[in-house]
Amino acid sequence: MEKFYEKPLLDELHEIQNTYGYIPEEQIIRIAKKRGMPKSELYGVITFYSMFHTKPRGRYIIRVCNSLSCHLNNSKNVVEMIKEYLGIDSGETTKDRKFTLEIVECLGHCGEGPVMMINNKIYTKVTPQQAVSLLKNCI
């Protein structure tokens, strides 16, 4: 007999992430017990979807495109300047949880590189100096 749950698993995961900014280990354990599923299976679901995160993330998610066209337009220099300014590497979050840096494959503006995204706002033809200036405006 199939079990009935108050809400679908993905909805529950979204609620937790909206509350904490990520899905903490203790919540994963709680959900796995409540649903009678192995923790590894729940991790499989969480890691399958790129919108879920198991580590705290910054208030501002900085994504810099490193696809071929952006790379040819020196996105590497933008990334290096951001890393130096924030003191973090790709996939990391600043200690104050203000910024998370992600190097991504494509942001869909291939003719306008380098491309940078802060949360949901796109910036095109970004220079390293402009990137730092944009980050300073977030503070």
Shape: elongated
CATH top level label of the largest domain: Alpha Beta
Residue share in helices? Answer: 40-55%
CATH H-level name of the largest domain... which superfamily?
Glutaredoxin
- Strand arrangement within the widest β-sheet reads 2-1-3-4
Number of helices: 6
Instruction: Give the CATH architecture of the largest domain.
Output: 3-Layer(aba) Sandwich
The tally of strands reads 4
* Largest sheet composition: 4 strands, mixed
Query: DSSP strand (E) fraction?
Result: 5-15%
CATH topology category name of the largest domain: Glutaredoxin
Total domain count: 2
CA-atom Rg in angstroms: 18 Å
Terminus-to-terminus distance:
53 Å
Spans of at least 5 consecutive residues with low confidence: none
- Label the structural class: alpha+beta
Order of helices and strands: HHHEHHEEEH
- The average pLDDT score comes to 92
Describe the protein's architecture and organization.
The protein is built from 6 helices and 4 strands, in the order αααβααβββα. The protein has 2 domains: 9-48, no CATH class; 60-138, 3-Layer(aba) Sandwich (Glutaredoxin). The model has no long low-confidence stretch (mean pLDDT 92). α2 crosses α3 (39-48). It has a 4-stranded mixed sheet with strand order 2-1-3-4, with helices on one face. It is α+β, with helices and mostly antiparallel strands and 139 residues long.
